[in-house]
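Limitations

Structures in this collection are predictions, not experimental determinations, and the ligand pose is part of the prediction. Treat each record accordingly. The example that follows, with zinc ion as the small molecule, is included so readers can see exactly what is and is not provided: the inputs are given verbatim, and the output is the predicted complex.
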Amino acid sequence: MHDFLQLTQIRPIGMRDDGDKILIFAENIASPPDRCDKCGNAPLYRHGKRQYTYADTPIHGKPVKVEIETQRYRCKACGTVVTLSSPSLDDKRVATRRLVQYIQDRCFGTTFTQLANEVGLALNTVKGISQDYAAHLEDQVELETPRLLGLDELHILGKPRAVLVNLEMRSLFDILESRTKALLADYFNNLKDRDRIEWVVIDMLEPYELAIRKQLPNTRIVIDRFHVVNEAAKKLDELRRHLRSKLSSEDRIRLRKHLQGSWLRNDEIKTRKDLEDIEYIGSHYPELSMALTINEKFFSIHNASNREAGEKAFQDWKDAIPKDFRKYYEPVAGMVDRHHGDIFNYFDCPVTNGCTEAMNDVMKAMNRLGRGYSFEILRASSLFYRVMRESGTIVTHTGETKDISKPVSTMGDRIEKSYGTPISTLESLAENDELIRKS
Ligand SMILES: [Zn+2]
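Predicted complex:
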């Protein structure tokens, strides 16, 4: 029979089309081992034949099973039983090596269920092969540990995950399966060059803070500026709503457009009508007017020219709160007091997690496309797959060479540094629905 199988040491002897799958009968024709590889004794004796069924790459769109009759040998001295093998067979799974390769080539573009149906393997086997491959891809890449790290959370596949961003390079550094303190601590503890991280920008989330303080004692924390403002705005809004409820419906309409923006900001161009309205509200509703001024002052704390000025602006803000308003403002003041150092570190490192926000759209696309994939595959496809790897790698040269025929930029030894997938790359792939596609 013609060797249509093309598997080393495996000879086909028959074939049957079962309709939903193709069954190929074959025998292992490898030569018997010379001696026992456990005790070195020779010779080995025939110990019966066995049939092993391996899955192989599909033929004409049908899954293929190869039933291989295999001679076994036994060592009389130590009792070891040896089964003939083949370099074409995977030693971890009952699949041919080329089928494993076939799954690896497709696991980023096809869901596990589709792949399992296509090749006739159990879902978990396909999942296992894909995840091993994801881990293998990860081993090939060594990302430079960021100097400025942004740590935020995003919902991926129905769970909150910690997302780590290189804020200097605007690239995705990692996505962790969850965001618990234990997992983060373990992650930072095992992170290569963790001393390189000078700053971490986080929200006011305790697990982040505790994990960083414990595992990265030399790293300084900055509480994200926008997070502080958002948290404060949620609380400050209560007073604004309360005071607005006292307004006549006519005045509420008059006020609406001014209340939406920051109507007191000096840099905003105001019409005469605007100014009249503001004047009117100021004189008719002094409490509301004052509340708006206080809120506005809080929001401009981060605009101070330096740390000292910022800290003073906060203190002045606190001191200026009228007694009647205290119950509304105390939670905000308390929040800032509790995180004082980390919040005002912003003035020493004026960086925000703004670019992590851009990841929101990416993750939405990922959640939409990602049904049927595992977290590991989504993570690997956004970090280690070819497009991602190439776009996140910067090549430079040492510049030291005597060969002056080349441009300076390509002189000397090549240095390749990977920083993780640029967020702009992820954004454009997400826009084109190519986030989980072929390279
Ligand atoms: Zn032996």
